[in-house]
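Convert to structure. Protein one:
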Amino acid sequence: MMDKMRRILVYVCKDGAAPQRAQFVQSITGHFSDGGGDEVEVNCSLDKNQFVLRRADRGRGIPLKRPAFCPIKHLSVTEAAAIPLDVQRRGTDVGVAIILQTANQRVLLTRRAKELRIFPNVWVPPGGHVEPDETLLDAGLRELQEETGLKLEQEEVSPKILGLWESVYPPMLSRGLPQRHHIVIYMLLLSSLSHLQLQASLSPSPAEVSACLWADSRLVRAIVSAVDGGEGEVPVDDLPSSISVSQVSTEGALSDSTLPVSVLISRAPVSGPDVERVSTGTKFALELWLKSLETSDL
């Protein structure tokens, strides 16, 4: 019972009805989309430890998206029934991920430690679960500090929600039945420091993070063009063949290293073991970040 009390869960609200707790096997995006589209606009609020989603008028809300291959979207009745009851009763969890933009317009990406239970060895922004009685910003700043050692103050970051992503693990039905179902809130924070100034304070938690990198918009454009589930060559323009990253040792020491750009533009494999790559939800968030850069430059 304790577990249930401690987790913040997603509730959905339709046509003015009272919020209902979302079911684990219910597609949240599908709940709001007419005709089964993969992207909708919603409003969200965190109220009394319930994360409540409501449909928004077009142009008035924030994007909520799932991948076309979302396992929950494609679950058959038989497959849904085969999910263990303790998993079915979990509901849908809430996470916050921080798109930290530096003064010189780079963003921080971290590679999840390979020992982690979900999405090991995948590149994502820092983030994690929302705890009871936290605001979304509190949760984002706490996770940023726990995972990277970077401590930012609430009054200096100008938070903005870029979008929401419906995330399921494993990410494709070909890799097994869903074990976890999240709505991830991607929140943009602005730092007044450059990536080199922030790098000096970086001290990642080796239990969670195995490497870090600061991506500029040129690299991000290549990353988002490697659409998961898509085909064809990814245009890498004039990108170098490798980029510098900081490796994190098991003791938490940082060392300079390089990573082939080809790793960051890998697509999620349709079958077989997963590979080191940027997560699909992260690509969605980075695309929204590029749009926010364009509008802030006007």
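Protein two, convert as well:
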Amino acid sequence: MKIFHFIMLFILLAATSIQINAQTCKPSGGIRGRKPPPGQCNTENDSDCCVQGKFYTTYTCSPAVTSATKAKLTINSFQKGGDGGGPSECDNQYHSDETPVVALSTGWYKGGDRCHKYITINGNGRSVKAMVVDECDSTMGCDADHDYQPPCPNNIVDASKAVWKALGVSQDNWGDLDINWSE
């Protein structure tokens, strides 16, 4: 009977290990940066422009979504002419910086499955609900479609100014904040 329990424990541990490994998100590849043509990379909100020859890691996945998914909050303008580039993926529209909207890294965006759904963002001791309107592309970048910006890391919630204001973050600290989010 002890052998049976030992075998069952071993099988349970092995299955758990496989499940944990299946939830791990690893890089899917990379791209080499191309220098943007003059005036083609919008640096509003301190956005980065691609660097010629620099290697940028790409991802097709994001960490598993939980009741408190850890992420990096970044800032993006979803308005026409803003550093977000073109219209939002979900509705082909631009959105005011005064509206709480976000773009999610490719894996979390789930091919648009989260479009127009609200997520709750917790950070700086506060929380805010924001609507998903766009993808922060983790698979591509450094081209005109991506405003000559690098691919997003796989753990990004790219938020409008309204989200940063609602979280009570002083404007001089906007741009990079550790947060948790949930559906």
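The first helix runs from residue 2 to 22. The helical segments are 2-22, 106-109, 161-166.
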